[in-house]
Design goal:
The protein has about 325 residues and is of the alpha+beta class. The protein contains eight helices and nine strands. It has a four-stranded antiparallel sheet, with no helix packed on it.
Length: about 325
């Protein structure tokens, strides 16, 4: 019978364990890194975010995070996958920043399939800095100019002039008023301007100008298209849309219970307008006409869901003018 020495057995186990750890480390070693802007970002700015993973051996498949991994204050635009080498994979994302404070990208999962096994690794969290572009509410107001002080010597003249005017008015009223032929003119009721019709006219004007331009001015086009929708929302719902950011306008519309489809069309047009103005986004002609079509869908939906509101506003407008006219003639 063969006798095994304990010391020899211990040495063999140590060697086998070391070889197994070395082989396992060689098979499963990965290096994951991210690349993102180090400078602060403004609202609406588009930036690149990339994930690169290096394996010690070639992987069968690498599954990177999809669009569902980004949300909240980050808008997913597109992504591109690169096979740098047999053991290196990279994915680059185009994201749009809509936060009003610093944002942290949480650890993102990456699946690595190799030799039939799936390993899950995570990226390190990354902080995106917010850059404020408007003045702080804590800024001090400039001092007001001192009020003009009138010389005390002119007050007697002002009082005398007022007494003279009062005496003249009394004399005219008592002796000459009845001699003056008064013509009562009926004031015409001003025409109520329907916001839907006004919006339709603006859209037609934008289309004609955009079609006639040889060199397309996309910045003008998106600005006019976005302002037309903002004007309608402000005119009908009394939301300060023309002086608010896109994010604020959409929040106002949700809060006021604006129709979901109208909010959807507004979001598409206003986001593309912001990208054209602030992110140096250069759209194509087809993209511009698609944005214009969203404006037309906004118009057609508004004709359906806002008709009752517009009729109520029209009735209040005409009733108010009629009451003002009756008060004027009654006082006369």
């Amino acid at each position: 019978m063969v006798e095994l020495k304990p010391r020899l057995i211990n040495k063999s186990l140590v060697l086998l364990t070391a070889c197994f750890c070395l082989l396992s480390g060689k098979i499963s070693a990965q290096t994951i890194s991210v690349s993102a802007p180090s400078d602060s970002l403004t609202v609406g700015e588009v930036f690149n975010f990339s994930i690169t993973i290096k394996n010690s051996t070639a992987a069968e498949k690498v599954v990177f995070p999809d669009s569902n991994s980004f949300g909240g204050d980050l808008e997913f635009l597109s992504s591109r996958h690169f096979k740098v080498s047999s053991s290196t994979d990279s994915t680059e994302y185009d994201l749009q920043f809509f936060a009003v404070e610093d944002v942290t990208i949480p650890p993102l999962p990456v699946k690595i399939v190799s030799n039939g096994d799936t390993n899950l690794v995570f990226t390190d969290p990354h902080i995106l800095l917010y850059k404020q572009t408007i003045s702080s509410v804590d800024d001090e107001f400039k001092p007001l100019k001192p009020n003009f002080t009138f010389p005390y010597t002119i007050w007697p003249y002002i009082v005398g002039l007022l007494l003279l005017l009062a005496a003249g008015f009394f004399i005219w009223r008592k002796y000459f008023r009845n001699r003056t032929t008064e013509e009562i003119q009926t004031k015409a009721v001003p025409e109520f301007k329907n916001p839907v019709n006004e919006l339709e006219s603006r859209l037609i004007s934008i289309k004609d100008t955009h079609s006639d331009q040889v060199e397309k001015d996309y910045k003008w086009f998106y600005s006019e298209l976005g302002d037309a929708l903002r004007w309608y929302v402000e005119e009908l719902y009394k939301i300060p849309a023309l002086e608010s950011t896109t994010r604020e306008v959409l929040r106002y519309m949700d809060a006021f219970g604006v129709d979901v489809q109208i909010v959807k069309h507004s979001r598409i047009v206003l986001n593309e307008a912001d990208m054209t103005k602030f992110a140096k986004f250069k759209p194509t002609l087809d993209q511009s006409w698609k944005a214009y079509n969203e404006g037309l869908l906004f118009l057609e939906r508004a004709k359906i869901v806002d008709s009752a509101r517009i009729q109520r506003i029209k009735n209040e407008f005409e009733a108010q003018f009629k009451n003002d006219q009756e008060d004027e003639y009654g006082m006369g």
